[in-house]
Amino acid sequence: MGNKRIRIAISSCLLGERVRYDGNHKRDAYINDVLSQHFEFVPFCPEMAIGLGVPRATLRLRLSSHGVRAVQSDRGGHDVTRALAAYGRRVAGSDTGISGYIFKARSPSCGPARVKVYDFNGSPSGTAMGIYASAIMETLPLLPVEDEGRLNDPDLRDSFIERVWVCHCWHQLLEKGMTAAALLKFHTEHKFLIPAHSRTALRVLGQITAGLNHDVNMAADHYVQRLMQALSRPARRVNQANVLQQVAGFFQGALNASDRKELHDAIDSFGKADLPIIVPLTLIRHHLRQNPHAWREGQRFLESRPRATGTRRR
Fold this sequence. Notes:
Elements (H helix, E strand, L loop, with lengths): L5 E6 L17 H5 L5 E6 L1 H4 L9 E6 L2 E6 L8 H13 L4 E6 L11 E4 L5 E5 L2 H9 L5 E3 L6 H23 L3 H10 L9 H12 L5 H16 L5 H13 L7 H15 L6 H13 L3 H4 L17
Parallel strand pairs: 1-2, 1-5, 3-6, 5-8
Antiparallel strand pairs: 3-4, 6-7
Helix pairs in contact: 3-4, 6-7, 7-8, 9-10, 10-11
């Protein structure tokens, strides 16, 4: 990931900050004890930011004639929808350099999905996104987002970390200046990662980079939209195994029979869910050190994410 840690925005309460309505927090052990070693967290609490103190009345999402609104349980149902949404758009438009966002699950302000909505009688009536989270996601539709609950799922966690990582690489590309050569290089570096999610996406993205005679910035916008859309679906094991086999094919003639069998057996075992992907990846990286190849070494699919994050272990 480089020496500079990737910045991820996060709900303040998940870091242990006592900003909840009751003066407590929702410190998440995995986020604080593991992910914090590899990422720089940028905390936000929209409810505090719009002037709601601690302690404060609880918020609820309620149906109204104007749609779903965020209202406090006292003061006659004080409506803070507009303030939360405005703050979300302001944060999204600021230069925070974030490459992802971890929201507090089920929060009326921060929940990215599945937040309870109550009807006119105070009874549960479906779910929606939190008002602040909705504004962030609407303004930054390509930003990788998750809530702390879903990060307990290894597949969803790996998918989120991967998308954050790619988003960071894209931001670095934009900072250096978008050119046709730079976009083509970026695509080349991700040629193994993309088909692990979608071979169709690889074909479409290849077509975009093959026709760069027009406005490169427009092509880049189209490219990153299709890329992040493809990566939003967790990689399938069968696709990953196929990519690993393709990589192994590059060592044809460079490995002895024993090493080839060991590598193919590891890939086969991963495909059958008997081994985590880190095993064949480690073997491939070992063989790359013995048989250097600039193009293969530059492949993002083969680069090691921080192993302590618990990713790339399926």
